[in-house]
Write a structure and sequence with these properties.
Belongs to the leucine-binding protein family. By secondary structure, the chain is α/β, with parallel strands linked by helices. Helix content is 38%, strand content 18%. A hairpin with a 6-residue loop joins strand 12 and strand 13. Helix 2 crosses helix 11 and helix 11 packs across helix 12.
Length: 426
Amino acid sequence: MKTSFFHTRRGLLLAAVLTACGVNASAAEPIKVALIEGLSGPFANAGEAVARNIVWAMERVNARGGVKLPGGARPLELMRMDSKGSTEEALSLLKSATDQSVAVVMQGNSSAAAAALIDALNKHNQREPQRRALLLNYSAVDPVLTNEKCSPWHFRFDAHADMRLAALTDVLKDDAGTQRVYLIGQDYSFGQHVLREGRKMIAAKRPDIEFVGDELHPIGRVKDFLPYATKIKASGAQAVLTGNWGNDLTLLIKAAREVGFEGKFYTFYGNALGVPAAIGEAGIGRVLAVAEWHPNAGGKGSDALVSAFRKRFPKPEDDYLHVRMQVMVEMLAQAIERGRSAEAGAIVKALSGARYDGASLGGLGAGVMRAADHQYIQPLYVSVMQRAGSDGVPFDAEGSGFGFKTLRYVDAARAEQPHRCQMPAL
């Protein structure tokens, strides 16, 4: 019979650790955190990858004694809630979580779902102030979520789409060999935004570039991307810009390889979830990604974190580590301790404007949760696919033999962008 992440042996180990740190594990009520994510369906691999990151982050907090509160330290406990990739199911699970008085919800793999959850939380918290809850967002990057739809109950730990686009298009601006660009994305709020704003940014920075395609496709429903790849190749495009994620990106890049497309891919998420293996040799020097960090970012703390994660999750298919998810859990623990309460309102007050120095992650992830819009401000890396073992690429991705090398580092001040949030009162 399969066991969960928190199997019996780990539970006993956690109890021993907590007891050694002066915590009565049997008496300490856990602080429950609900992960509402697609853990089955077309993006199950992305959902499970997130779960591994959050579980590992919580394990580290618990191993050092849990979250310290006036009544005694308490461990963090993750509640896995499978939305199956459905916004309606996500809303139903949110109600289930708040009915159980869960104060912290995490979600990210859909900006549409995040928008719905934020709206539902705003209404719930006004209706039931005794059972308020907040949303910690690790990857729903539609900028509207911290602009027009900003909420005191929502915090985003990922750089939003315009921040990522600005970094990618700065690199594209300097790519003199690229004259023709194809835009393709998933047909929902985030994908639409990436194509619309990507076109604007490229046109402003490189007015000489010709757009030879601009196409949206159904999210999570396309099984065969060969027709799309054939059009991309026929267009004469020298580069593709896409915000696709999960299998929609992996299958697109795999199809591009199969039709012999030799252009570049400027992506948000091209460094994980099967993409390097799908494109193989053809991706060297041609697949770019942008993120808050990547495994070959370098430095003692970075290398140590990668090695520790791979020791915890040794299977190549489980190799998906993101610093932002580690930062999210660390800052949650610190906010609870600073606010001396696991109640949602106290966490919000402690987290808004909070700074993280990266100390608990070996110097990684330092930034600030901007109080004005609850957008985490942090550096960004643009990286490019190379063969593992080459200069600057000590780690490969998912056992593929290919990894990513830093192409450009964008410090937090440059990555930061203005906002249009008018934050409602708590």
